[in-house]
Amino acid sequence: MTDTPFDLVVRNALVATAADTFPADIGIRGGRIVQLGEGLGAGAKEIDAAGRVVTPGGVDAHCHLDQPMEPPVRMADGFDSGTRSAACGGTTTVIPFAAQAKGQSLRAAVLDYHSRSEGRAHVDYAFHLIVSDPTPTVLKEELPSLIAEGYTSFKIYMTYDDLKLDDGQVLDVLDIAREHGAMAMIHAENADCIEWLTKRLEAAGRTAPRYHAHARPMLVEREATHRAIALSQLVDVPILIVHVSGREAVEQIRWARGHGLQVYAETCPQYLFLTAEDLGIDDSYHGAKCVCSPPPRDKANQEVIWDGLADGLFTVFSSDHAPFKFDSPEGKKPEGKEVPFRHIPNGIPGIETRMPLLYSEGVLGGRISLNKFVELTATNPAKAYGLHPRKGTIAVGADADLVIWQEGERTIRNADLHHDVDYTPYEGQRVKAWPAMTLSRGDVIWDGTNFTSKTGRGKFLRCGVPTLQPRRRHG
Ligand code: DUC
Ligand code: ZN
Ligand code: ZN
């Protein structure tokens, strides 16, 4: 204990962690939480949170910011606007992707991504890697050294010509994850099935955005999910299946868990709040706004995803923010054209709406507990990617990344959001809560009305190894 006053006390909070909900004042010094308890002494500054729930700042462990794209397509958000939008929606840590192009060294991809992020972020950030070219040098030299330097997770793709790995390559990469304790994230969709279906749809003249969903039915996700599980079982390494969309993939993951395999899963708001109908019930190009992969399914599948969030099937809830403007030659209309679905940039924005949507429909809608909300949006992503306990919780020693929630009805309007995208897929959606205040390392960066951060205050974070559960020891 010291007599030094706190820099800041958040008083009369109803603190929610992944484990407990309790009343407390939060004493902050030097950007960290230094004391928790009732009746703390005075701070140099004080915030009265009476009557308000206070959660850890969100950790959005799957978002894409200024990821290099094939011209003319360009992501609408870089680290400045992307982390601004994150902060205004209660997210204080983001983990986007340093993506290796085929033929590029992984180290070069990381250096390039640092040059895109340096001095631009408003909240703290780490990098996942995307491994698209697992050469012997990447496997034996670059990956091990990057993991040791704090890039401890990587995504691999089972689809997309420019990214996908064959099964042998997946095994090679998983083997490195096992050896070095890294976390492998897997995009599970069967590339050949998608290509076969896409060609048939194109031959029939079915190229409108809505046919994107026809080209990627649940079967292709189910098959690849099962294969990813089998490959991870062969190597005996944990994996995390990203953006799980519905029943068939969920069944595979339940099967794996039932067999004692360490298979983690992520889902995203689009699988709770959108359906394939949002890609169009006719051939309108507006459906391009909701083209993402896997595609949103139907209402029954939304319920399956809700059940999985409530019962522990899902470990993390991420936005998969992949921001492309709709009415732009750099976005959903490449070179100003309404293109066949195959060529529509894949992904939707959602970094700002992730936390409010889940808080509203999940917690206030009675589907998940407040503690489960914290676990899914902050604690587990921090553990899965080696940032816990610095991030993802409210505890002595943790960074003072906090969200003070305000309950009350409002309607999501793109005009009120802070990304650089010209639409939100959730336009008109009613929500029941929004962050009244977001603090990052003790700084108020969103006060419910104004964004009050300074560009470049966000720091790069080196990740430790995942701590979701102890790794099995191999004899
Ligand atoms: N996968 C992602 O994770 N994000 C955007 C598009 C995709 O296929
Ligand atoms: Zn993906
Ligand atoms: Zn993604």
UniProtKB/TrEMBL annotation:
<keyword id="KW-0378">Hydrolase</keyword>
<protein>
    <submittedName>
        <fullName>Dihydropyrimidinase</fullName>
        <ecNumber>3.5.2.2</ecNumber>
    </submittedName>
</protein>
<dbReference type="Pfam" id="PF01979">
    <property type="entry name" value="Amidohydro_1"/>
</dbReference>
<keyword id="KW-0479">Metal-binding</keyword>
<dbReference type="InterPro" id="IPR011778">
    <property type="entry name" value="Hydantoinase/dihydroPyrase"/>
</dbReference>
<dbReference type="InterPro" id="IPR032466">
    <property type="entry name" value="Metal_Hydrolase"/>
</dbReference>
<dbReference type="GO" id="GO:0004157">
    <property type="term" value="F:dihydropyrimidinase activity"/>
</dbReference>
<dbReference type="GO" id="GO:0046872">
    <property type="term" value="F:metal ion binding"/>
</dbReference>
<dbReference type="GO" id="GO:0005829">
    <property type="term" value="C:cytosol"/>
</dbReference>
<dbReference type="InterPro" id="IPR050378">
    <property type="entry name" value="Metallo-dep_Hydrolases_sf"/>
</dbReference>
<dbReference type="InterPro" id="IPR006680">
    <property type="entry name" value="Amidohydro-rel"/>
</dbReference>
<feature type="domain" description="Amidohydrolase-related">
    <location>
        <begin position="53"/>
        <end position="444"/>
    </location>
</feature>
<dbReference type="InterPro" id="IPR011059">
    <property type="entry name" value="Metal-dep_hydrolase_composite"/>
</dbReference>
<comment type="similarity">
    <text>Belongs to the metallo-dependent hydrolases superfamily. Hydantoinase/dihydropyrimidinase family.</text>
</comment>
<feature type="modified residue" description="N6-carboxylysine">
    <location>
        <position position="155"/>
    </location>
</feature>
